[in-house]
Specification:
Bound molecules: zinc ion
CATH class of the largest domain: Alpha Beta
Shape: elongated
Structural class: alpha/beta
Number of domains: 3
CATH architecture of the largest domain: 2-Layer Sandwich
């Protein structure tokens, strides 16, 4: 199966912090970093604008403040998104699918990945949910200790009601996973001891970032009393959007089928045009128009949206509707797509049907 080319979406991520948490000086942008990340729905071209404290008297002058969003998109040094690791783990360990099936599923969803790549992501998932930093002989801990404080991101990844939940604690400044847990229940009773593991590291926690997931906020307040808690708006939106996922998947499938039908139909039209040329007859203008509409509708069915705010299936459906309206308008015009030679009369009606146009 040939996958459509994925044009990376440019995303600029700026460190959200305004002032240095240590000396309260206004932070300045100190560097731009580029990262190319491949997630399941799209390729991203990330531009990170990191900040640092300009004060010569700052106790943490070497610290780089980053966007916490980057740690949520991908683990450090990875080229594939964190969503790929989590989805592979979900399909492997919750849905019990074999690697070839997972590979086929991800390719169907547009992600270029090899079967070996799937196996590698599965091992990463196992390591991720088993992450547990301790304060003894641990390279990750040594780096945290040298910095002298923690700024963790706490995340919950849901797979639907009755399904597993994956909890992750990631270091907000380096993006390194600190603790992971896979559980089927999601209550404060399990969450509090999970979050409290942070305190066993014996380092001051200057703040916590999380989404507004039910259960997460009260659990954080109980496990880490007095620690400032910051919510991540974009992630919150992402959580709300997960409720739409089954509908989006079904809409996406519907759009994919329509595109498939259009491709077959386009082939028929090309055959008609070739036959006319062979017979020495001119290609009816409406046939050319129908072909152009086909091309436009197929391009619309492959367009990329934005996760959360405008998911691809919705954008594709909207674009298809625009083409559908254009076909409709052309059909009503004298000499338009619906008023032509016999061949085109036949061709326009399936085209309308195939872009989802109701009869009438
Ligand atoms: Zn400072």
């Amino acid at each position: 199966m040939n996958l459509p080319t994925r044009v990376p979406r440019r995303v600029v991520l700026t460190a959200p912090d305004e002032n240095c948490p240590f000396c309260h000086t206004h932070l300045q942008i100190s560097q731009h970093r580029d990262r190319a990340i491949r997630t399941i729905p799209e390729d991203l071209s990330l531009i990170m604008r990191d900040k640092k404290c300009p004060s010569p008297t700052c106790p943490q002058p070497h610290l780089r403040f980053r966007s916490t969003e980057e740690s949520r998109i991908a683990l450090p040094h990875d080229k594939l998104g964190l969503d790929v690791i989590l989805e592979v783990g979900h399909l492997r360990f919750h849905q019990h699918l074999g690697f070839p099936r997972i590979h086929a599923t991800l390719k169907e969803r547009g992600l270029p990945i090899s079967e070996m790549g799937v196996q590698y992501q599965s091992r990463k998932y196992e390591a991720l949910v088993a992450s547990s930093v301790t304060s003894s002989q641990n390279a990750v801990f040594e780096k945290l200790a040298a910095r002298g404080f923690l700024l963790p991101i706490i995340d919950a990844v849901h797979y639907g009601s009755g399904e597993a939940v994956v909890y992750l604690i990631i270091d907000g400044l380096s993006g390194v996973p600190l603790f992971g847990q896979e559980t089927v229940v999601r209550g404060k009773i399990e969450l509090v001891p999970f979050i409290r593991q942070l305190t066993t590291l014996g380092l001051p926690i200057i703040g916590v970032v999380s989404d507004k997931e039910t259960g997460l906020a009260p659990a954080i307040a109980e496990a880490l009393p007095g620690v400032p808690h910051q919510f991540c708006q974009r992630h919150y939106l992402g959580n709300v959007a997960t409720a739409m996922e089954p509908d989006l998947a079904s809409l996406g499938e519907d759009v994919r089928k329509r595109e498939e039908h259009l491709r077959e139909f386009q082939r028929d039209l090309v055959r008609l045009a070739t036959k006319a040329q062979k017979d020495g007859k001119p290609v009816p203008p409406d046939l050319s128009t129908a072909l152009e509409f086909c091309e436009a509708a197929r391009a619309a069915a492959r367009i990329h949206g934005r996760p959360t705010t405008e998911p691809s299936p919705i954008k594709r459906h909207k674009e298809l509707k625009r083409v559908q309206e254009a076909v409709s308008r052309a059909g009503r015009k004298k000499g338009g797509i619906g008023r032509c030679s016999k061949d085109c009369k036949q061709s326009s009606s399936p085209l309308r049907k195939r872009v989802g146009l109701r009869a009438g």
